[in-house]
Design goal:
Blueprint (H helix, E strand, L loop, with lengths): L11 E10 L2 E11 L3 E7 L5 H8 L7 E6 L2 E2 L5 H6 L2 E4 L11 H5 L14 H15 L14 H14 L4 E5 L7 H16 L3 E5 L3 H7 L2 E6 L2 E7 L5 H9 L17 E10 L3 E9 L3 E6 L5 H9 L6 E6 L2 E2 L5 H6 L2 E4 L3 H5 L6 H6 L3 H4 L7 H14 L16 H13 L5 E5 L7 H16 L3 E5 L3 H7 L2 E6 L2 E7 L5 H9 L7
Parallel strand pairs: 3-8, 3-9, 6-7, 7-8, 13-18, 13-19, 16-17, 17-18
Antiparallel strand pairs: 1-2, 1-4, 4-5, 9-10, 11-12, 11-14, 14-15, 19-20
The chain binds adenosine-5'-triphosphate and magnesium ion.
Length: 506
């Protein structure tokens, strides 16, 4: 961190950076100026170029043009090792740990401290890891493999890595997308203490509340270019939204009136010991039922059990009045159930397949019934959904892995909507999706309900649940602890049901 330049010299500065991938211009004019002791928000719609900018900082991509200075000196990183050696640590949108290696090995990856005889000093590594974890207030066994750790813990390990590198610039690309409230608080307090030590931090998020809570400065990007940079104190959510999308987003929750018809999904007494207990609810045609609760309340597990990808010991699931067999997702799909999962990377998307194929993945059996796949029909169906969801990609045969994070999420949504479901279960449907598209996804869900689809929407975002649902169910610690009609569902009532300590009245 030594430098003889004045403190006014930015820790890092990118000006008018350009980056293309073939015909795709990911960055037209990316600019970012970071100062020591600051937490800088970087915001913009899906595909605006945020992650690309970050990957140039990380040395993962090389810029095609523009300037990149580190403490006043022009740099051009050819590798991530070079970026690291210059005190830059990046936590990517997707965790990049090696699952088979231990926590310690991951933290010290590629730079194991050696003892006097040149041997790897495991004790020293373990001691340092433990010390960092203590400082972060977490208890993770340094010797365990990283496989099976929660995303929150994986991120803590990435941060531990950054701290052990003594990075002076720390970039976090949507670190909170998969974290619970407590985990976000822990991350933020770590971020603040790193800032107070004089480091420069970048924080990418689609959540304005977080940006206001944590950051002091904000840079807005749109279509691969810098729009503006200003102190957080001098801006509002409306200003930011206008700069991000270039227009006003008037209606965030465009809930349309829908005719609520007959019962389509009926779940009765669903129990899986230690996971969820005696969960009963119904969803009617045309109805949006919101399932609220804290992360870890068991909502996703219930959804997965209903769909048949997870087991349950007791209870029944009926679709259209007929029982649905346990543990058979194919049968569930045949009966018109669709589940858009929470973890798109692991459960939703095949990254090296083209966008087209991902969208039609769940209907390919149908398309290929006679051993033939109708390429034109496949493309047609994919095109319809890609355009309805505004998937931003140069071409539909692009590998899905090169799409921006939010656009990958839209592809997963499209894949399930293409199955033309009767019951649609969506788990955190707008996580990682920008404001403009969020409103689009909400409008779409509303339209689907209007067409008579029964929708169960799991969401940790209270405004989303309250804005969209006809009825709100609340889960806490594996049990249903509240049910509210739309008119009764106040933020206070739902939060109380989600967090109250005492046993609920039964
Ligand atoms: N390796 C790549 N090959 C081809 N196109 C790419 C590649 N990486 C990024 N892109 C394209 O560049 C554009 C910017 O993507 P980027 O990931 O930087 O967006 P983002 O602002 O991080 O979006 P999100 O909020 O969805 O994460 C997108 O259109 C994306 O498809
Ligand atoms: Mg991104």
């Amino acid at each position: 961190m030594q430098s003889d330049t004045t403190s006014a010299t930015p820790a890092l500065e990118l000006s008018r950076v350009v980056k293309s991938f073939g015909a795709v211009v990911a960055l037209r004019s990316g600019s970012l100026r970071l100062h020591d002791g600051s937490i800088h928000a970087l915001i913009g719609e899906n595909g605006a170029g945020k992650s690309t900018l970050v990957k140039i900082i990380a040395g993962l991509y090389r810029r095609d043009g523009g300037e990149f200075r580190l403490r006043g000196e022009e740099v051009d990183f050819h590798s991530t090792a070079q970026s690291k050696a210059n005190g830059i640590a990046v936590i990517y949108q997707e965790p990049t740990l090696f699952p088979d290696l231990s926590v310690v090995e991951n933290i010290f990856m590629g730079r194991q401290p050696t003892g006097r005889l040149g041997r790897i000093d495991r004790a020293a590594m373990r001691a340092e890891a433990t010390e960092i974890f203590d400082r972060l207030g977490v208890s993770i066994d340094p010797d365990r493999p990283t496989d099976g750790l929660s995303i929150a813990d994986q991120q803590i390990i990435e941060i531990a890595k950054a701290i052990s590198l003594d990075a002076s610039v720390l970039v976090m690309d949507e670190p909170t997308a998969a974290l619970s409230g407590v985990e976000v608080d822990r991350l933020f307090s770590v971020a603040r203490s790193l800032r107070d030590e004089g480091r420069a931090l970048v924080f990418i998020s689609h959540r304005f509340d977080e940006v206001f809570d944590l950051c002091d400065t904000v840079t807005v990007m749109r279509d691969g270019a810098h729009v503006d940079t200003m102190p957080i104190a001098e801006t509002t959510v409306d200003d930011m939204v206008r700069m991000m999308v270039g227009r006003d987003v008037t209606e965030m929750f465009p809930k349309l009136p829908a005719e609520i018809g007959e019962e389509v999904l009926a779940v009765d007494g669903l129990t899986q010991p230690g996971v969820f207990h005696d969960v009963s609810f119904t969803v009617h045609a045309g109805e949006i039922v919101g399932l609220a609760g804290l992360v870890g309340a068991g909502r996703s597990e219930v959804a997965r059990a209903v769909f048949g990808v997870d087991p349950y010991r007791e209870g029944t699931v009926h679709v259209g009045g007929a029982p649905l067999p346990k543990g058979r997702p194919r049968a569930a799909m045949a009966r018109g159930l669709a589940l858009v999962p929470e973890d798109r990377r692991r459960q939703g998307l095949v990254l090296d397949l083209p966008v087209t194929r991902n969208i039609t993945l769940a209907v390919r059996d149908r398309l290929a019934r006679f051993g033939l796949i109708w390429g034109s029909r496949e493309n047609e169906s994919a095109r319809v959904w890609a355009s309805r969801l505004e998937v931003k990609t140069a071409a539909l045969d692009t590998e899905s892995g090169t799409l921006s994070g939010g656009n990958q999420q839209k592809v997963v949504l499209g894949k399930w909507l293409a199955t033309d479901p009767k019951v649609l279960i969506v788990d955190e449907p707008t996580r990682g999706i920008d404001v403009g598209t969020k409103a689009e996804v909400h409008r779409l869900l509303s339209q689907l309900a209007q067409q008579g689809i029964a929708i169960l929407m799991i969401s940790s975002e209270l405004p989303e649940v309250l804005g969209m649902a006809d009825r709100v169910l609340v889960m806490r610690e594996g049990r249903l602890t509240g049910e509210f009609k739309r008119e009764q569902a106040t933020p206070e009532a739902v939060m109380l049901a989600a967090t109250a300590d005492e046993e609920p009245a039964r």
